[in-house]
Design brief:
alpha+beta, 8-stranded antiparallel barrel, 30% strand, globular
């Protein structure tokens, strides 16, 4: 988990490097989102010297993080913040049966890599995480920026309505969760667009199915986290409202989001 603490320093270095290690931001140089991020990060970078043990997030910090969930219902009383992950991947759609460009595409779920930003969020605040999420959403090749983070796992759909979060890696096991959407709200009007120009997908609250509904199942090791609710917040990109340009096709839209896990 230690690498999470260097999110700020590594991403700042990435942004100001005279020879970028990956493709630059859209239109070159620093855009508004990046400038805002750097301004905020520069003001907080000195806090790194004052952080406690960098090997773990202590309970005090976890209990005092503020999650901005907008107009979504709040976490159920008694639940505690367990994990925060940055997701980067694609929202998937089909217009294979559409007969008109104005038809709405059918959602086919999402696939995303998840990265651990729990400690950074706890110690430096979720505004830093928000800004980094917005930046990574705009990268055509985000792999180098993601190298500054520890992988939490993967997000995918086990069926058309079951959002799965597999947080079991060779580094750590934060459990596996099968979840269903219980509430959604539109992303803010000024939400960051994705690398492909797509608007932001909605914010969500998801309820974890405990125990999972057959044929899905979990072993004791992967269910030990007891995650009960998951929020998808600060979304950037991923939305497509019509089949214009995609009639008869399957397609993907690039997105990033934060996933907040409560148990």
């Amino acid at each position: 988990m230690q690498s999470t603490f260097y999110l700020i320093l590594s991403s700042l270095a990435y942004l100001v490097s005279s020879s970028p290690i990956s493709s630059p931001l859209e239109h070159g140089g620093l855009d508004r989102v990046s400038r805002e991020y750097m301004t905020s990060a520069a003001g907080k970078a000195s806090l790194l010297d004052k952080l406690p043990d960098k090997s773990a997030c202590n309970k005090f910090n976890m209990d005092n993080v503020t999650m901005n969930y907008g107009a979504l219902p709040p976490p159920t009383p008694g639940l505690k913040l367990y994990h925060v992950a940055l997701g980067r991947g694609t929202q998937n759609y089909t217009c294979e049966t559409a007969t008109s460009p104005s038809a709405a595409p059918v959602a086919l779920g999402a696939v995303a890599d998840l990265y651990n930003v729990t400690c950074t969020t706890c110690f430096l605040g979720n505004d830093i995480t928000n800004r980094f999420t917005n930046i990574i959403a705009r990268q055509k090749d985000y792999s180098n920026m993601a190298q500054s983070l520890t992988r939490s796992g993967h997000h995918y759909f086990s069926d058309n309505t079951t959002a799965t979060f597999n947080l079991h890696t060779d580094i750590a096991n934060y459990g596996i969760s099968f979840s269903k959407k219980t509430a959604n709200v539109s992303a803010p009007a000024d939400a960051t667009r994705g690398e492909d120009g797509s608007a932001a997908v909605p914010w969500l609250k998801l309820k974890v199915e405990l125990p999972p509904v057959a044929p899905l199942s979990l072993n004791a090791e992967d269910s030990a986290s007891h995650v009960a609710e998951i929020y998808r917040l600060n979304t950037a990109g991923g939305a497509q409202s019509t089949c214009e340009g995609y009639v008869g096709q399957r397609f993907q839209k690039q997105y990033a989001a934060e996933y907040w896990f409560w148990n």
